[in-house]
Amino acid sequence: MNNLFAIFISLSAGLVISSAIFSFIAAIGLVPRIAKKSNTVSYIKTYETTIALGGVAGAVYLFMPFSINFIFLNFLVSVLIFLSGIFLGVLAVSLAEIMDVIPILFRRAKLKTGLWLFVCSIALGKAIGTIVYFNIKEIF
To answer: So where are the chain's domains?
Structure first.
């Protein structure tokens, strides 16, 4: 009975959180922007569904009382954490781009090239930070 209650709470929390995050992402136009930049406009529905399912899966994973004991599943979780870091980096850069922070920074610093390197370093830093946060428990 406790497991059914935990599943219900997890799914409910996941639905609420994923819908709130998806609303925020839709408001800043992240999904269409990624689809346009990567020439995958026909996959927008897949992006949206994946984002919503990711919120639900994350809530289920956080609330369910189980542990991962298989090496393959640990590797899979590490890969998913890495991809989450990339997504957070893209989200942060998209939000900053909407606010015109990056172009203004480049104009004021009189930089002509290297915008792609700046954006990639932000995404990589977010990914590494996520991996460190979730895999090294002694630091935090």
So the answer is: 1-66, 69-140
